[in-house]
Amino acid sequence: QVQLVESGGGLVQAGGSLRLSCAASGSIASINAMGWYRQAPGKQRELVAIIAGSGSTNYADSVKGRFTISRDNAKNTVYLQMNSLEPEDTAVYYCNAHAVVLVSHRYLEVWGQGTLVTVSS
Predict the structure, then answer these.
(1) Which residues, in sequence order, are CB contacts of 1 under 8 Å at separation 6+?
(2) N or C: which terminus of the chain carries fewer CB neighbours within 10 A?
(3) Which tens digit of pLDDT belongs to each residue from 56-87?
(4) 19, 44, 41, 47: which is closest to 88 by C-alpha?
């Protein structure tokens, strides 16, 4: 009933920037929190940044000051602006959202399929 589609990943040199987008679609009544997670090869998935419906944000220490999460509620879209990228940022980035669907008003946690970010040295 709800799908997340990520875009914006790719190959970038160290020090460069990328902007990830994640658009939610489907029978959506509302979306509360949205966030970005990442998983590097051989490592566990970790939280990168989250943004609440109120607009309050939280970041992992490793990206604080370099990454910015934002959202456009009218478009049901969350963004991750990534600046000063480092090779350590290389990972598959996943979008996450907590949504309430129409009619039944069921509460769902939804994940995107991921987009690969590769930072070269």
Answers:
(1) 26, 27, 101, 106, 108
(2) C
(3) 999 999 999 999 999 999 999 999 999 999 99
(4) 41
Instruction: Write out the DSSP string of the chain.
Output: -EEEEEE--EEEETT--EEEEEEEEESEEEEEEEEEEEE-TTS--EEEEEE-TTS-EEE-TTTTTTEEEEEEGGGTEEEEEE-S--GGG-EEEEEEEEEEETTT--EEEEE---EEEEEE-
Tokens of 70: 């934002």
Backbone φ, ψ for residue 15 (5° rounding): 90, -10
